[in-house]
Write a structure and sequence with these properties.
Blueprint (H helix, E strand, L loop, with lengths): L9 E4 L3 H13 L3 E6 L7 H5 L2 E4 L12 H11 L3 E3 L9 H9 L3 E2 L4 H8 L1 H10 L7 E4 L7 H11 L3 E5 L9 E3 L5 H16 L4 E5 L5 E9 L5 E13 L2 E7 L6 H17 L4 E9 L5 E7 L6 H8 L3 H9 L16 E8 L1 E2 L5 E2 L2 E2 L2 E3 L6 E5 L6 E2 L6 E9 L2 H13 L2 E3 L5 H9 L1 H4 L7 H4 L2 H4 L6 H20 L18 E7 L2 E10 L2 E6 L5 E8 L2 E6 L2 E10 L2 E6 L2 E7 L14 E3 L4 E6 L6 E2 L4 E7 L2 E6 L4 E6 L6 E2 L4 E6 L8
Parallel strand pairs: 1-2, 1-4, 2-3, 4-5
Antiparallel strand pairs: 6-9, 7-8, 7-9, 10-11, 10-13, 11-12, 12-15, 13-14, 15-22, 16-17, 18-21, 19-23, 20-22, 24-25, 24-31, 25-26, 26-27, 27-28, 28-29, 29-30, 30-31, 32-39, 33-35, 33-38, 34-37, 35-36, 37-39
Helix pairs in contact: 4-5, 12-13
Length: 669
C-alpha cells in the first residue's frame, strides 16, 4: 500500500457486480468520486450507472478485461483516479498489480505487494505462519513441474495419514481441491486437482494436507494500518459450503465462546503482524470438533462475507479501508470491539441445485427484493440483467441482523421467500430450507453439512403450491386472451361454441407434468387438476395479477410470462411453469439417448470415440464453466452412436454433446 496523508479524491473500482456497487456506496458517503470499469457483458450492469464515470474494457472474458492490470491502470490515468480498490477476486490478490499501482503513484487499497506475495503460495504462507506461532497442519508439496509419481505420493500420504486434502497451492474458491480417503484414489485426485489449478490460477502446484474430519470453517477479520497497529474484529462462521465454496456465513460463531474468541484473535493478529499487514484481511482456520484450530490461509483483501462483521460491530469496513489507504490510523472504535447481536448472510446464486449446483445463465426478467426491517441486500443485478457465463453466478447477498441468531435467520428466510426471481434457476429454495433445518438452527454444523443433508430433501415445497399456482397461471392466461380478443356484440362474457368443453393446458414443473382443465361458468370457475377438483372463486384476474379464492383461501397471485414460461409468486412461494405446446414442433425433438450440455461452457476433453462400448457412468465429455469441470457421463450401458463436439468447442445449455444408444433398442435409459 502506498502511504500518504492526502485523502483520496477519485477512486477507480477494479471490479464488477455487487462489490463494485458496495464500494461506490461508501465512496459517495465519503465524498469520493468514483470510476467504474466494465466489459462488453457488463455494459448495462447497475454498478456502471452508479459510478460517476466509467471506462469500457473491450471483451468479455476476465483474462481480456478485469484481469488486465495494464488496462485498469490506463483507465485510472485517463480519468485522473488517484486510488484503485480491487474488491475481491480478479486483481485483488495480485502482488504484481499492487506494485504496478505503487510504481504509477496510484494508491492500491489493500496490503503491500510484499504481504500479498508472501501469502500467494499457500506452502510459503504455512511456513511463515508456523514461524509466527500460528497453529498449522503438516503437508507435502507436489510441484507443477514434477511428475506425480505414484510411489512418492503413497509415501507422502502414509506420512500424513488419510483422509487427505489435495489443495491448489495458488488461488482458492474451492478450485483444485479434492478429498482423498483411500490411496487408490490419490493419483487421480492429484492429477485432476493439478489440471484444475493450472486452468484457474496458471500454476498446477498442489499440496497434500491432513484433512480434519467434521471441521468448521472459522475465519477472523483483521485490520492493520501503516502505523503498526493490527487488530481483529471477531470471527465469522463459514461452514455451510458447496463445492468448497461458502453459501451461508454468520457472525459470531455458535461454536466460539469468549475465551476461544480471544485465542483465535491472538493467532490472527500474530499472522497480521508477521505480514506487517495494512488494510482489511482475513485469517482462515479449520477448527476441529474439540476446538483446536489450524491455519488455512490469509485472504489479503475484503471478503465476500464482510457485511456480517459490519452488522455486528457497526463498522463500515470499506470506509476503514479507504481511511487506512490514505495513511490514517485505524478509527478508535476498531481498537476495542465485541460482537453485538447476530448476523447471517446467504449467497443467492444462479445455479441448478438438483443438477449438482451447475451454474446457470440467462436473462433475469424479474429480480425484486423486499424492503424489510433488519435485512440488507447487496445485489449486482436487477430486473432485465443478463447473467453471463463468464463470471461468478452470484446474484446477491441477503443479510439479516437480529439480537439473536434465530431472529437473524428468520429475517433472511422471509426476505428470500418474498424475493421475486424470474428467468434463471437459483439456490433460493435450498437456502430457505437450510435456514429452517433443525441441525442448522441448533448451530450443529460443519463443512460436511451438505454431504450429510441431501440438498433436494432440504428444499421443502408448500404441498399446495404446484396445483394452486398452475390454476393461477391458467386464469392469468385466460385474462390475457380476453384482453386480446374482440368480443362480438350481444354475446355474453365467456360464451363459447362448445360451452360444455373444458379448456386444457399442460405445464411442466420440474420433473412433474400438471394438466389443468378449466371452464368459466356463471357461478365461478370449474377446475380440475389431476384428481383435485378445487372450489375456485375468481374475484379478479389480469395477465399479471390474479385474486382468487381456492378451496376457501383467498390469495393474490403475481404472474409473469416469458415465452412459454409462466412465473407465479404468492404466499405459497414461487413456481416456474413451462407450458407444454399442444402440438410440438417435430424438429425440436431430440434423438433418444442424447446427452445434453447441462450448462454453457467449453469442451475440455472428449473421453470416448464413436463406436465405443460404454458402461453406465462412463465419462463421455468433460466441460468447463466458470473454472469448474463437470463430467457428462453415460446414462446407461450401450454404444456411442454420435460424438457431436470436439475439444475446445463452446456449447450452450441443452446442446447435444453425444448420443449413446441403449443395449437393446438403441435408446439410453
Amino acid at each position: 500500500m502506498t502511504t500518504t496523508h492526502q485523502p483520496i479524491g477519485k477512486l477507480l473500482i477494479a471490479n464488477r457486480g455487487e462489490i463494485a456497487s458496495r464500494i461506490i456506496r461508501t465512496a459517495r458517503e465519503m465524498d469520493i468520486a468514483t470510476v467504474a470499469i466494465y466489459s462488453d457483458a457488463d455494459r448495462f450492469a447497475p454498478y456502471v450507472a452508479q459510478a460517476d464515470q466509467s471506462v469500457h474494457l473491450p471483451g468479455t472474458a476476465p483474462a481480456d478485461t478485469y484481469l488486465r492490470g495494464d488496462l485498469v491502470l490506463a483507465a485510472a490515468a485517463a480519468t485522473g483516479a488517484d486510488a484503485i480498490h480491487p474488491g475481491y477476486g480478479f486483481l485483488s490478490e495480485n502482488a504484481e498489480f499492487a506494485k504496478a499501482c505503487a510504481d504509477a503513484n496510484v494508491i492500491f487499497v489493500g496490503p503491500s505487494p510484499e504481504a500479498i506475495a508472501s501469502m500467494g503460495s499457500k506452502i510459503a504462507a504455512k511456513d511463515m505462519m508456523a514461524a509466527a506461532g500460528v497453529p498449522v497442519l503438516p503437508g507435502v508439496t507436489v510441484d507443477a513441474e514434477q511428475d506425480a509419481d505414484p510411489d512418492n505420493l503413497r509415501n507422502a500420504a502414509t506420512q500424513i495419514g488419510f483422509p487427505i486434502l489435495v489443495k491448489a497451492a495458488f488461488g482458492g474458491g474451492g478450485r483444485g481441491m479434492r478429498i482423498v480417503t483411500d490411496e487408490n484414489e490419490l493419483l487421480e485426485a492429484v492429477t485432476g486437482a493439478r489440471r484444475e489449478a493450472a486452468s484457474a490460477f496458471g500454476n498446477g502446484t498442489v499440496f497434500l494436507e491432513k484433512f480434519v474430519e467434521s471441521p468448521r470453517h472459522i475465519e477472523v477479520q483483521i485490520f492493520g494500518d501503516s502505523h503498526g497497529t493490527v487488530v481483529h474484529l471477531g470471527e465469522r462462521e463459514c461452514s455451510i459450503q458447496r463445492r468448497y465454496q461458502k453459501i451461508i456465513e454468520e457472525a459470531p460463531s455458535t461454536a466460539v465462546d469468549p475465551a476461544l474468541r480471544e485465542e483465535l484473535g491472538r493467532a490472527a493478529v500474530a499472522a497480521g503482524k508477521a505480514l506487517a499487514y495494512e488494510g482489511a484481511g482475513t485469517v482462515e482456520f479449520v477448527m476441529a470438533p474439540d476446538g483446536c484450530f489450524y491455519f488455512l490461509e490469509v485472504n489479503t483483501r475484503l471478503q465476500v462475507e464482510h457485511p456480517v462483521t459490519e452488522l455486528v460491530t457497526g463498522i463500515d469496513l470499506v470506509r476503514a479501508q479507504l481511511l487506512v489507504a490514505a495513511g490514517q490510523p485505524l478509527p478508535s472504535q476498531m481498537l476495542h470491539t465485541r460482537p453485538d447481536g447476530h448476523a447471517v448472510e446467504v449467497r443467492l446464486y444462479a445455479e441448478d441445485v438438483a443438477a449438482g449446483f451447475i451454474p446457470a445463465s440467462g436473462t433475469l426478467h424479474t429480480l425484486e427484493f423486499p424492503d424489510l426491517p433488519g435485512v440488507r441486500v447487496d445485489a449486482g443485478f436487477t430486473s432485465g440483467s443478463t447473467v453471463s457465463t463468464f463470471y461468478d453466478p452470484m446474484l446477491a447477498k441477503v443479510i439479516g441482523y437480529g439480537q439473536t441468531r434465530d431472529e437473524a435467520c428468520r429475517r433472511v428466510a422471509r426476505a428470500l421467500r418474498e424475493t421475486r426471481i424470474h428467468g434463471v434457476i437459483t439456490n433460493r429454495d435450498l437456502l430457505v430450507g437450510i435456514l429452517r433445518e433443525a441441525e442448522f438452527r441448533a448451530g450443529a454444523i460443519d463443512t460436511g453439512y451438505l454431504q450429510r443433508h441431501d440438498p433436494s430433501a432440504l428444499i421443502v415445497a408448500e404441498p399446495a403450491a404446484t396445483g394452486t399456482h398452475a390454476v393461477a397461471a391458467a386464469l392469468a392466461s385466460l385474462a390475457q386472451r380476453r384482453q386480446q380478443t374482440t368480443v362480438v356484440p350481444g354475446l355474453p362474457a365467456g360464451w363459447r361454441n362448445l360451452p360444455s368443453q373444458d379448456q386444457i393446458v399442460q405445464y411442466r414443473i420440474g420433473e412433474e407434468t400438471v394438466e389443468v382443465h378449466y371452464r368459466v361458468e356463471r357461478d365461478g370457475v370449474k377446475v380440475t387438476v389431476g384428481d383435485w377438483k378445487p372450489l375456485v372463486r375468481m374475484l379478479s384476474a389480469a395477465p399479471d395479477l390474479v385474486d382468487a379464492e381456492i378451496d376457501g383461501v383467498r390469495r393474490h397471485y403475481q404472474v409473469a410470462r416469458s415465452g412459454d414460461v409462466h412465473y407465479v409468486d404468492s404466499a405459497l412461494g414461487s413456481t416456474s411453469l413451462h407450458e407444454i405446446p399442444r402440438f410440438p414442433d417435430p424438429s425440436s425433438m431430440q434423438e433418444t439417448g442424447s446427452l445434453l450440455a447441462p450448462m454453457p461452457g467449453a469442451v475440455v476433453r472428449v473421453e470416448v470415440s464413436e463406436g465405443d462400448e460404454v458402461r453406465l457412468g462412463t465419462a463421455i465429455v468433460v466441460l468447463e464453466a466458470m473454472k469448474m469441470e463437470h463430467t457428462v457421463r453415460a446414462p446407461s450401458d450401450g454404444l456411442v452412436a454420435t460424438i457431436a463436439v470436439k475439444s475446445g468447442d463452446q456449447v450452450e445449455s441443452g446442446q447435444v454433446l453425444a448420443v449413446v444408444s441403449g443395449p437393446d433398442d438403441g435408446a439410453a435409459s
